[in-house]
Amino acid sequence: MTTKIQEFLEAVVRKNPGEIEFHQAVTEVVESVMPFIEENPKYEEARILKRMVEPERVIIFRVPWVTDKGEIKVNRGFRVEMNSALGPYKGGLRFHSNVNLGTLKFLAFEQIFKNSLTSLPMGGGKGGSDFSPKGKTDNEVMRFCQSFMTELQRHIGPDTDVPAGDIGVGAREIGYLFGQYKRIRNEFTGVLTGKGLNWGGSRIRPEATGYGCVYFVEEMMKTHDDSLQGKVCTVSGSGNVAQYTVQKLIQLGAKVVTVSDTQGYVYDKDGIDQEKLDYILVLKNIRRGRIREYAEKFKCEFHEHQRPWGVPCDAAFPSAYQNELNGDDARKLVANGCRAVGEGANMPTTPEGVRVFLNGKVLFGPGKAANAGGVATSGLEMSQNSMRLSWPMEEVDRRLHEIMIAIHKNCVKYGRDADGFVNYVKGANIAGFIRVADAMIDQGLV
Ligand code: NDP
Ligand code: 2IT
Q1: Does this chain's domain 57-188 share its CATH topology with 208-370?
Q2: Could you tell me the distance, in angstroms and rounded to a whole number, from the CA of residue 80 to the centre of ligand 2?
Q3: pLDDT digits (tens, 9 = 90+) for 423-438
Q4: Could you give the CA distance from residue 123 to residue 89 in angstroms, rounded to a whole number?
């Protein structure tokens, strides 16, 4: 690490004490872009990086609500409006008990570069709460969402800041949030994405992150004249991203052998087919049960409190949570012959894990590139809302696919090392950075 990078990062740590995940996300980007900035002094003169790591605005608020038993609860709500150089702030809302300011700053920071890579007009933001919908009734979730939106509504809008889902925020939560926004503001607008299909949502948005991640990995494999056909794949998570990653992998002829949740992973040696996936969709999205039930139903192995990275595979898709794949996991994957990794989740691989993959010359698609299909399709939902029309499935899927191919191409352009190996981490960071940085320079010191 050069002195310049070290000094920059030390200042970030001093100014943002305790925000470990934010430090991690900034470190990865700064290590990639600092050499590029040194070759392009205009970015240094405009202090672009220093400005990028400072959120434009952070909103923190109290969210009081009442349980079904009449007990009063108080959660904390956040919205981090990180960067609006390219468009309205855009990014999901996470409802998870571990959420804190540092988590959301890491996610909002990643979102700036991800949204830039999509080539659509979206700035970067992220929000959420330390509220967990797990174990709550629909009525409790509704009351929480209504209280959350009662404050959030004064800070967002279709041309200002457009939230969407993330962990713990799916179709049900977006519905309650949208209802409350509409009631308070008396406006039916595209203020949220991931809406229901019959009230302004886009086709393919639920599928988009998983599909996009598989499209991206397919592009990486093509550079080695290979494909996903017949490949054994491991997937972590069993939520929105994991579900549609599994679906697209099945469609492309791959064999998916794992899915997981916070309690452990399922190892289905025969492979998950569409019928078994339909079971997961009902289990996770409607019954809101545990993935262990899959193992019981289909009589396969369940590994309690373990992660699936010891299972031999050709390609791995970490699609659950940050830092869920560490250096040891990466070493196991490489030793077992894994050749490609698509990060469906945000920052699921630790810095040591990333180093292991890059040293092992694995095709490693970092989250901000590989999972950008979700927010890209949110961007397409915004366009459709503005035009007050709804594109057919084929059209949205075609656009999503084209965007993922273009992101891949852009990563290759900026990520190719002297020996020909493509470092997609470097490529994604530099390609994402340039568009935002140039817009910031054009718009003056704001
Ligand atoms: P969901 O809430 O639908 O699913 C989350 C999954 O992760 C569940 O299987 C959950 O298990 C598991 N999980 C939750 N907490 C932990 C933890 N502490 N350790 C390990 N696993 C955990 O969320 P999404 O599928 O939407 O999001 C998954 C990842 O993808 C996140 O990193 C998110 O930021 C990222 N992402 C999401 C996008 C989207 O459009 N939704 C877009 C781009 C990225 P359990 O059921 O037990 O809680
Ligand atoms: O991390 C992400 O990109 C998301 N959770 C999706 C954000 C969005 O606005 O669709």
Answers
A1: yes
A2: 13
A3: 999 999 999 999 999 9
A4: 4
Distance from the CA of 427 to the center of ligand 1, in angstroms? 25
Q: Is 415 in the pocket of ligand 2 (CB under 6 A)?
A: no
CA-proximal residue: ligand 2, atom 10 (nearest): 375
CATH number for the domain whose boundaries are 57-188:
3.40.50.10860
Would residue 50 show up in a list of annotated catalytic residues for this protein?
A: no
φ, ψ at 203 (rounded to 5°):
-60, 150
- 355: alpha, beta or left, given left = phi > 0 and alpha = psi -120 to 50? alpha
The structure tokens listed for 137 are: 């009734």
Q: How far is 445 from 356, CA to CA, in rounded Å? A: 39
Gyration radius (Cα) of the chain, Å = 21
> pLDDT tens-digit profile of 61-109?
999 999 999 999 999 999 999 999 999 999 999 999 999 999 999 999 9
Instruction: For residue 327, count other CB atoms closer than 10 A to its CB.
Output: 16
With a 6 A CB cut-off, is 374 part of the ligand 2 pocket? yes
